[in-house]
Amino acid sequence: SSCDPALRPIMRRRARSLPTSPERRKKAAVQCQEPGCQSRMNRVRFADALGLELTQVKVFQTGEDPSIPLHVLSRLSINSDLWYSSLNLEFTMQCLVPDFQQPADCLDFSSRLQEQQVCLERVTSSDLGLNGTIQVRNVAFEKRVSVRYTFNQWESIHEVCARWNCSIPEKNGQDQVDVFTFFLPVPPFLLQLSTLVQFAARYQVNGQEYWDNNRGKNYTLRCRTHPLKLPRECEESWIHFI
Fold first, then answer.
1. Domain extent listing, the chain
2. Does residue 160 sit in helix, strand or coil?
3. For position 241, what pLDDT does the model report?
4. Which residues contact 33 (CB under 8 A, 6 or more apart)?
5. Radius of gyration for the alpha carbons in the chain, expressed in angstroms and rounded
6. How far apart are CA 130 and CA 199, in angstroms?
7. Can you tell me the distance from the alpha carbon of 27 to that of 20, in angstroms, rounded to the nearest whole number?
8. What span, in angstroms and rounded, lies between the C-alpha atoms of 164 and 183?
9. pTM score of the predicted model
10. Where do the CBM21 domain residues begin and end (predicted)?
11. How far is CA 135 from CA 142, 183, 203, 221, in A?
């Protein structure tokens, strides 16, 4: 004998839709008018668990606009006004700005390259760091170009190798110049006010070493804050998007 209650079979009932209206039953019972056709016309009806209609058809006449409830319009208007008033259309961006003129834009660029054998051409700032190009005179095939840089006034130094990019003829048309590219990674937390990045280009060839350190001053980039403002068309596009 067991004290457990007797198990009852699970009752499964099939969901049934509520009875349709007399008009719908009348339409569903319409016989086919074609001669020899004895079948009824099949109709599809969508209903929920209670048998209520899931769809409602609304036919709009030409030129008739849908009617939107006033409480919906007022809520949309209030939300758009609140968003527009709280939207900060001005923000600041921090980036590294060179404290020097781009060497390639200077009139003495060719003479500096002849004198130093190596010269920075251009450097640009991005979200990830600094990208730049260096020109060196093609003294020999085997050569090494690198960039030595610091974030703390040369208390600690880092160095990255530059990669060969292309060869171009020198302005005199007789000698050849090699162009190298480099990338200096700058961590985002260093992009603060008064942060400095200093670097110099190093060229090693034929057992000799040449430097381009901006004539003893090094190349310096300083972190600065720039205010930016969204144009008017962007303001309106944000409002429409919301």
1. 94-227
2. strand
3. 43
4. none
5. 39
6. 11
7. 11
8. 13
9. 0.57
10. 110-222
11. 15, 15, 10, 20
Quote the CA–CA distance of 194 and 176 in Å, as a whole number. Answer: 40
CATH number for the segment(s) 94-227: 2.60.40.2440
pLDDT for the residue numbered 57: 72
Nearest to 214 by CA among 116, 71, 68, 141: 116
Angle at 57 between CA 51 and CA 60, to 5 degrees: 165
Summarize pLDDT for 193-219 with one digit per residue, the tens: 568 899 999 999 999 999 999 999 999
Element (H, E) at 84: helix 70-86
Structure tokens at 242: 């919301």
Spans of the chain, pLDDT less than 50: 1, 235, 238-242
Specify burial of residue 98 (Cβ count, 10 A radius: 0-12, 13-18, 19+). Answer: middle
Is 32 within 8 Å of 40 (Cβ atoms)?
Answer: yes
Residues forming a β-bridge with 179: 135, 166
